[in-house]
């Protein structure tokens, strides 16, 4: 009977997994079924140039939201209760990290100044679409339109820092006495935030490179190398949030540093794995965001709270959105920011949300569909211009020849570097970007890569013994 | 002034990421710092045969819990508020899926009957450690001790189904009138649950194989193939929970099917990526569980609630735990099951929790440390026995020769199969496991692989064009 008593005692405890919250399970089932459908349909229509995964997710999300709304008899279309933590802490970091990890660095930094100016200048846009970088991947291709991609995506990343500065500024400044000092103060805060966030990302990226290069050396294991990379990248983002810096900027630069140094120190299999796994995780997070946001778009409580006023604001915003030339791509992120602020005045909040939903729907479907055909049309007309651009990309090699025009080999011996450095100053004015890149490369190869690893500075690491394909069937 | 008003209106909304809950950020920072430390230290002491990642996580978790306890002045050591959803819905599925994905199938199914008997029989153990499979990876190696691994891990997977059956049984049966019918009823329910869960996993695994083979064919992209695999595996687990089946069993079999069919239809890069990414995610989830559980172990509320009674139970359980020969490895999972049941009678619950914590601590440190040296010692003594075992593994080839002893080629022509089939029945009695495997392989190659893909049944798929290594620096 001892067994019997124990069993009865145990039955008082929730022992089994089958006793999880049923509504959570139902919501997750519906959501993941849609998620799978979305990815598979998105893949099928990939070749259709008018559609993309974001539009599929949008339509599927809206349909599902509608079905849930009807099924729940107009009460509410809320299927999953999400909060801003889910978005800012778990979905956005992998997307931005992957962007930093996969970015074509030379091309990206070439347009750095333009990007920074756009990012600082477009302040109001930054509030409405603080983290609109997610949309960039859906409509712009890094390979086809590198310049546009750098500007739009880079601006989005810089926007995050700008929006933090602005938000803090709004809370602390007295706007009745705006003068030059305030503007300078804002600029100073922005620059401080920008550089500290970047520095934190670089430090953690280099730390990961150093750890992988030294500690993991000679006992590499593909299954163990991905974990510290992922976790340290995520840690950089969390630490930035802890220090009230821009997590987006930090994890973006952490990704850049990791792809430049850490990635070269791991095994061959790890390189393939990390590259594709980060891209896959980012892709899943992107689709997740689109699907979720539009499933929530039919939330009737918000629509009821916002009365006719929204129509006015809608047309206003749509005009701004269409009319402005700042290439701002509206994204669902904005929605999440607003929809999570439920403790504020509900009427204003609801108006903002419904209005943003319409702008986002409008811009995703319209701009999302026409971007690809538009770019194709423009590319066809300006093929010659692009050819020049492509030639310009190889000008580093030309510059190296310029530096070496007197026949000296700058890579050998430090005594011989005086001559090229003197001509370097002259060249810095003529070809600023290329010259900066040239000297950065020299510095990198001479001082940074020997310590932290990088292309050409780590011995070939074969895959670990456990990498062999499973022999059993 | 319009801009000014808009700005002030916006400031009422939570716009910026910096306004996330500060306590969440602090908790995440501490947790992920420890997480990184744990993985790096765990890697460094990997060669030490007395330690492993679980012991590192345990000690670091306890230290961190102690520091938090002191810092919060004995109030509580709770740093992160977790619930059973986190564990059962997000941490356990990737671990079990990876186990199914990486399992050496031939070796595993060879011991299927033994495993099943252990799993059904060890019912009381199943309640205290329903999902103890996580611990198996930490102390047993699939390569070094395949038999032990299959039995212990397989038993753990089957345990999950058993625990659901038992739990439902306890609630619905009248234990004052136990007779043979009840036992038969229980067995029937178990078998139903076991087969439906397995079938669901197989169906979703085959569905993913079919989708990848047909829809993704000729337009493979490594970044897009991992996502449907991950999501459909997760969907199988969630659907099982929805239908009150065993999610563990389902996702385990889904993993097996995916590695047998789906995995062979993707690009070469995808194969490397999925194999290692699943292992990495599983590794992260395992370390996460160990670290979390032991950070929570110093929760003084629970310790206070459980008075002297727990000492009695502790010695009782320790004796059972040490004395029994069922190879049950205590795992932190058990703790989570108990610690999440806060709405039950608090005194009993607290006793169960504190007692389980001690048993888990004890068994992780003691058994975790001595398992490796013990196995090494046993292996040295029984090398000859193992050699026989290894030879036995190649008996499929021998059997094939037996089948073909009259010189017929069974693979050609259906008319000639009567003779080997007749001798097959004779062989089934003499070599049951090998014969079943032989006929399964024939069936698989003839009917299943042509439809769903698999080794040798998909054309070589080169890596996608985007797989080329980034040329920029």
Automatic annotation (TrEMBL), chains A, B:
Any GO MF annotation of the entry: sodium:proton antiporter activity
Keywords: Ion transport, Membrane, Potassium, Potassium transport, Sodium, Sodium transport, Transmembrane, Transmembrane helix, Transport
Gene3D superfamilies: 6.10.140.1330
Ranges of residues in domain Cation/H+ exchanger transmembrane: 124-296
Domain of life: Eukaryota
Topology term for the membrane: Multi-pass membrane protein
Compartment(s) where it occurs, according to its Swiss-Prot or TrEMBL record: Membrane
InterPro entries linked: Cation/H_exchanger_CPA1, Cation/H_exchanger_TM, NaH_exchanger
Cellular component aspect of the GO annotation: plasma membrane
GO biological process: regulation of intracellular pH; sodium ion import across plasma membrane
Main location: membrane
Pfam families found in the cross-reference section: Na_H_Exchanger
Transmembrane regions: 20-42, 54-71, 86-103, 115-140, 191-212, 233-258, 278-298, 310-330, 350-371
Reaction(s) catalysed (UniProt annotation): K(+)(in) + H(+)(out) = K(+)(out) + H(+)(in); Na(+)(in) + H(+)(out) = Na(+)(out) + H(+)(in)
Keyword Membrane: yes
Name by which UniProt lists this protein: Cation/H+ exchanger transmembrane domain-containing protein
Organism annotation: Citrus x changshan-huyou
């Amino acid at each position: 009977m001892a067994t019997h008593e124990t069993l009865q005692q145990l039955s008082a405890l929730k022992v089994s997994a089958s006793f999880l919250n049923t509504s959570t399970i139902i919501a997750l089932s519906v959501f993941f079924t849609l998620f799978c459908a979305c990815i598979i349909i998105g893949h099928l229509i990939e070749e259709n140039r008018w559609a993309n995964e974001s539009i599929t997710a949008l339509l599927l999300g809206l349909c599902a939201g509608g079905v849930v709304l009807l099924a729940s008899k107009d009460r509410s279309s809320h299927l999953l209760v999400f909060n801003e933590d889910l978005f800012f802490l778990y979905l956005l970091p992998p997307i931005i990290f992957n962007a930093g990890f996969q970015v074509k660095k030379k091309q990206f930094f070439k347009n750095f100044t333009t990007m920074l100016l756009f990012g600082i200048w477009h302040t109001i846009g930054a509030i409405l679409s603080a983290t609109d970088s997610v949309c960039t991947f859906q409509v712009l291709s890094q390979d086809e339109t590198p310049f546009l991609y750098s500007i739009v995506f880079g601006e989005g990343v810089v926007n995050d820092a700008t929006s933090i500065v602005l938000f803090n500024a709004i809370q602390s400044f007295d706007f009745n006495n705006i003068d030059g000092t305030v503007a300078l103060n804002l600029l100073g805060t922005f620059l401080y935030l920008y550089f500290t966030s970047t520095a934190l990302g670089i430090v953690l990226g280099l730390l990961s490179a150093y750890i992988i290069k030294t500690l993991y050396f000679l006992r590499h294991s593909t299954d163990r190398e991905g974990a510290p990379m992922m976790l340290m990248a995520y840690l950089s983002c969390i630490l930035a949030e802890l220090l009230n810096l821009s997590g987006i900027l930090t994890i973006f630069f952490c990704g850049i540093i990791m792809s430049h140094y850490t990635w070269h120190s791991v095994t061959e299999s790890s390189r393939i794995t990390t590259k594709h796994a980060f891209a896959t995780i980012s892709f899943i997070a992107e689709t997740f965001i689109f699907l979720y946001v539009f499933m929530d778009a039919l939330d009737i409580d918000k629509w009821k709270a916002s009365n006719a006023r929204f129509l006015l604001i809608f047309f206003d915003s749509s005009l701004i959105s269409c009319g402005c030339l700042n290439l701002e791509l509206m994204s669902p992120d904005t929605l999440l920011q607003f929809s999570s602020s439920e403790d504020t005045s509900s009427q204003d909040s609801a108006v903002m949300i419904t209005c943003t939903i319409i702008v986002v729907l409008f811009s995703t479907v319209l701009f999302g569909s026409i971007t690809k055909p538009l770019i194709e049309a423009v590319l066809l007309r300006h093929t010659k211009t692009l050819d020049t651009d492509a030639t310009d990309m190889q000008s580093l090699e030309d510059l190296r020849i310029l530096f070496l025009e007197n026949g000296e080999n700058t890579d050998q011996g430090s005594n011989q570097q005086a001559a090229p450095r003197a001509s370097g100053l002259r060249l810095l004015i003529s070809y600023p970007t290329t010259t900066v890149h040239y000297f950065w490369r020299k510095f990198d190869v001479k001082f940074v890569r020997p310590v932290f690893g990088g292309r050409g500075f780590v011995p070939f690491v074969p895959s670990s013994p456990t990498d062999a394909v499973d022999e059993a069937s």
